[in-house]
Amino acid sequence: MTRLTSFFHFCAGADGSILKRTPTDQNKYAGIGATVFFTGVFAAVAGGYALHTVFDSMVLSIVFGALWGLMIFNLDRYIVMSIKKKDRIWKELSMALPRLVLAVLIAFVIAKPLELKLFESEIASELVLKEQVVYKEQEDVLKTRFTTDLDRLKTELAALYTEIDQQRIKRDELNLIAIQEADGTGGSGLRNLGPIYLAKKRDADNAQEELAALTATLNPSIDTKQEQISTMETNMASALSAMEKTKLNGFAARLDALGKLASKSSTIYWASIFITLLFIAIETAPLFVKLISERSPYDYRLDQHETLAAQVHNAYVTKLVSATEAEMRFIKEADRYQSMQTVGAEKELLKKVIESEIDLLKDKVITWQEYKAMGRKFS
Predict the structure, then answer these.
(1) Count of beta carbons in the 10 Å neighbourhood of residue 79
(2) Which residues of 231-264 are buried (b: 16+ CB within 10 A; e: fewer)?
(3) Any idea where the domains of the chain sit in the sequence?
(4) Which of 126, 269, 303, 371 is the most buried (most CB within 10 A)?
């Protein structure tokens, strides 16, 4: 076997020593291993691109992409390696089901960043539109800080102008009445500059004086409010120009843009689905190959190896248990024999002590109290 073939066998989680004795299975596991390897490569590219959209750092993208690819490669290798042919299809399916679910999840994780790269130009256009909407919302929020006071000042200023305009309208009306009285087109209907005209002219002059006085009174307030409005509008313009506009080019923003594009365009929607299905097919292909294929010589030899290992282990455990039980019985019997010997020795010693005490008391007269004390001693 070449080094590349051996490497692909490692990727498939196959035992090289067994494959050397089953040459008919070498190509099969080389193909499975190649699929697992290239899935890890795709995962590395997808992970690196996803991180690059977040940190915009080539070094971090390469390092993270490599780690991500190795992790996905290791998971795929374990998933494929853990499926064993046992000629019991339902048991194999029950064992493979959670691994298939995990493989599908991995396929989704790999597919999404690559979809973002494939539709990068369309996503960029969508992000521009989204940025404009977000900027407009931010501007509206900022403007609300000033609009309340601006509207109040503009309303007060408009009220002042209205008051002056009403006085001007009154003056103009009185002037018109005096002129009509003078030329005979109104009032008494007589064309003259008599006392009626003079009275109306006086009313018009009074209205003019009131207008001048009102204008002189309100002009300072008008100037103040105009200055306040101008200052506030300047501050609002400065705040708007100083507002930081963050570009929406992160991973989440791109995913959201891709979702909106898919909802707008059926072409992108179906393209996204087929790309995801493609990666699901690639990710689950090694599992299905092992499930649908018949038991091969490699499977039989692997089963023999595992069965032999289990039997050796069981024999060793049985031997260890027997030895442990024998040792425990020996310790128990030894303790029992030692206890019996100790009790016998104590009895013999006590017997000799009593006999010696009796011999000493044969010729000795003792009182009742001494006898009772000796009884307590021997008891």
Answers:
(1) 23
(2) eeeeebeeeeeeeeeeebeebebbbbbbebbbee
(3) 3-118+265-295, 129-242, 311-378
(4) 126
